[in-house]
Amino acid sequence: MSLRLSDVTLTYPDGDDGRVTAVDGASLTVAPGQVIALTGPSGCGKSSVLAVAGTLIRPDSGVVEIDGTAVGELKEPERAKIRREAVGFVFQNDNLLPDLTALEQILLTAHVRGERPSKNRAQARELLDAVGLSEHENKLPGQLSGGMRQRVNIARALMGPRKVLLIDEPTSALDQARGRAVVELIVRLSRERELAALLVTHDLQSLEVGSATGADALVHMLDGRLLDSELVDA
Ligand code: ADP
Ligand code: MG
């Protein structure tokens, strides 16, 4: 399996002397090529699940495995390497840099890893093609629509030897049709590239759970707990 959370609990300081429990005993398995959608009310812990799954935060307890490696046992530099290489993040805002072209946004990810741009140009172009933006590789974010910028963002998250894709509310700034197209794109690319994808969304209409182009399963979250997770624990 590519991403596995076993009985993960995460608390934050609450500003007084106590702790607030953001993730409460969460267990979840996402297989390669699978897209699991996670939904629930604001503040229930969805982004915290992604942060723990992506090694951004260490949980208080429980095990996170990426591609079979229990990442909690690794030292910080090794976790940072996994974050740079194996995990792609897509957030609600595209966070594109205003002065870089679409192609350069994607190359920058590899550059940060210390790789030579020439080596990565082919993969970056292939990714732009995969998200339908070949013709726009030299455009700046200001010259692209919101939907196109989110597609650049997705292509950027896929640059490199990715195993896991973590996506936080990617369609909230888009209309229904563009939102549906973004989910479809995430599903197609995750299957083609055998990525384990965890997709946080409120946009249940765009998910089309179980359809050929839709998410594989939907997990509800409430007060830090995953409900219905037996759907995907098998
Ligand atoms: P969601 O993404 O579902 O809206 P979050 O994971 O962002 O939920 O937050 C879960 C809970 O943890 C909330 O009660 C939130 O206020 C709290 N929380 C999130 N991040 C922090 C933080 N950095 N410090 C303290 N509390 C936090
Ligand atoms: Mg959130």
Automatic annotation (TrEMBL):
Domain ABC transporter residues, every copy: 3-234
- One function term, GO molecular function aspect: ATP binding
Record-linked SMART domains: AAA
Keywords of the record, alphabetical order, are: ATP-binding, Nucleotide-binding, Transport
Database matches in Pfam families: ABC_tran (PF00005)
Cross-referenced PROSITE patterns, in alphabetical order?
ABC_TRANSPORTER_1 (PS00211), ABC_TRANSPORTER_2 (PS50893)
Does this UniProt record's set of keywords contain Transport? yes
Q: What is this protein called?
A: ABC transporter ATP-binding protein
Organism encoding this protein: Gordonia alkaliphila
